[in-house]
Amino acid sequence: MARLEKLLEMAYSGNLRALGRLLTLVENPGSEAIELLERLTSRAGKAQVIGFTGIPGAGKSTLVSRVIAGLRRRGYKVAVVAIDPTSPFSGGSIMGDRLRMQEHAADPGVFIRSIPTRGIKGGLSMAALAMVEVFDAMGYDKIIIETVGVGQSEVDIINAAHTIIVVTMPGAGDDVQALKAGVMEIGDIYVVNKSDKPEANKTAAYLQFALEKEDIGRRESGWRPRLVKTSAVLGQGIEPLVDAIEEHWKFARETGLHAEKVKARRILLAKMLAESLLSSRVNAAMEVNKTLLEEAAASGRGLFRAAEVVAREAASMLLDSE
Amino acid sequence: MSSLQSTREQVLEGPKRRYKVLVAKMGLDGHDRGAKVVARALRDAGFEVVYTGLRQTPEQVAMAAVQEDVDVIGVSILNGAHIHLMKRLMAKLRELGADDIPVVLGGTIPIPDLEPLRSLGIREIFLPGTSLAEIIEKVRKLAEEKRMREEAEASEQVGQA
């Protein structure tokens, strides 16, 4: 483990190359990743994790870039985990979220890391959560997760972030859209971006109404969700948005929501890790019981019995590997 | 049980880590169609590609490569400033301790400039007319070499520990 020690030491002392390599290590599950996370999580738990989610094309990346600038002006070190989709065909991906944040590339107080979804549903991968722990342990004050923005069911973020920002834009659906379950329910702060466009006031009014009726954003914590109008391209509304982020952070610390969320994200990370450990064995056990499965699938008899066999085999492989 | 054993080991290793490539444009050069075509071809070949967009400084590109921990950096330059820009990029990579990341260059490069660029440490130079297949193959080879060096380094250090 000499290499880990050395990388950790370098990263703690501010070496960005070492930090980049640590992120790669935790991105790929394996014994080294587990060892690393064991060391890091005890130092983490201080940062505010801010999740940006919402429909594709709402301008999340540009908005994030402006918010980074706002947070930097207030003296914070900022890390970003930008999640981009993976091609289901080639397994490759083009990660372009960073493109809109490149103005911060040369700023040593900002660290941006792109990760592909690699087919993960729900918008968040184990890699993203593990990276949050790394950045947190390395002393970043604010960690932004920009989700892939696939749709209305992207709600994993609720367990991973302290402050959830739902980004929408004018003309993206009517008042019924605003009332739908899922992503529209989870925001601590709602942003109508591109509010220089026509219909922005109408969209904002729908949302404001839904917020006041507590149809959306109803939270047990007692926080009343905010609505902010921005135009990221024109740089408008950014300071009020950063103010709202800060207010929510103050609220989270005073009410104990902060510690609760750190716990929730770690439990989610542990669950994902457990699932990944099991699922790799399930794959191996499927391979071992291939004939049994194929016969059962063809005849339609005994398939679910075979599934039990696979599960038992997988569990015993996991025990064997200890 | 040897075939069972190897199946287990194979599956337990998990999905193979994909090669990650940075595609960048530097300087006052507004033409990125070529860079996008190459980025897309690499994606279709299964690479993870990070694209940084137009008009980047060499310092921005080097920092992005470090933050993203890429296996290869690919730069496209069409405006004639290649020697100046690549010199700065290589210097910044050295300063960041990232000169182990292989750099390739594509663009309209005059033949007399090839040697000076190679002596800066540029690993491959793709001139107009190079096929996408050739680019993909050479990028893959460089990425493979880098991963092998890292693995060797890791096992060497474990041996010392």
TrEMBL record, chain A:
<keyword id="KW-0143">Chaperone</keyword>
<keyword id="KW-0547">Nucleotide-binding</keyword>
<dbReference type="InterPro" id="IPR027417">
    <property type="entry name" value="P-loop_NTPase"/>
</dbReference>
<dbReference type="InterPro" id="IPR005129">
    <property type="entry name" value="GTPase_ArgK"/>
</dbReference>
<comment type="similarity">
    <text>Belongs to the SIMIBI class G3E GTPase family. ArgK/MeaB subfamily.</text>
</comment>
<keyword id="KW-0418">Kinase</keyword>
<keyword id="KW-0808">Transferase</keyword>
<dbReference type="GO" id="GO:0005525">
    <property type="term" value="F:GTP binding"/>
</dbReference>
<keyword id="KW-0378">Hydrolase</keyword>
<keyword id="KW-0342">GTP-binding</keyword>
<dbReference type="GO" id="GO:0016301">
    <property type="term" value="F:kinase activity"/>
</dbReference>
<dbReference type="InterPro" id="IPR052040">
    <property type="entry name" value="GTPase/Isobutyryl-CoA_mutase"/>
</dbReference>
<dbReference type="Pfam" id="PF03308">
    <property type="entry name" value="MeaB"/>
</dbReference>
<protein>
    <submittedName>
        <fullName>Transport system kinase</fullName>
    </submittedName>
</protein>
<dbReference type="GO" id="GO:0003924">
    <property type="term" value="F:GTPase activity"/>
</dbReference>
From TrEMBL, chain B:
<dbReference type="InterPro" id="IPR006158">
    <property type="entry name" value="Cobalamin-bd"/>
</dbReference>
<keyword id="KW-0170">Cobalt</keyword>
<dbReference type="GO" id="GO:0046872">
    <property type="term" value="F:metal ion binding"/>
</dbReference>
<dbReference type="InterPro" id="IPR036724">
    <property type="entry name" value="Cobalamin-bd_sf"/>
</dbReference>
<keyword id="KW-0479">Metal-binding</keyword>
<keyword id="KW-0413">Isomerase</keyword>
<dbReference type="Pfam" id="PF02310">
    <property type="entry name" value="B12-binding"/>
</dbReference>
<feature type="domain" description="B12-binding">
    <location>
        <begin position="18"/>
        <end position="146"/>
    </location>
</feature>
<dbReference type="InterPro" id="IPR006159">
    <property type="entry name" value="Acid_CoA_mut_C"/>
</dbReference>
<dbReference type="GO" id="GO:0016853">
    <property type="term" value="F:isomerase activity"/>
</dbReference>
<dbReference type="GO" id="GO:0031419">
    <property type="term" value="F:cobalamin binding"/>
</dbReference>
<protein>
    <submittedName>
        <fullName>Coenzyme B12-dependent mutase</fullName>
    </submittedName>
</protein>
<keyword id="KW-0846">Cobalamin</keyword>
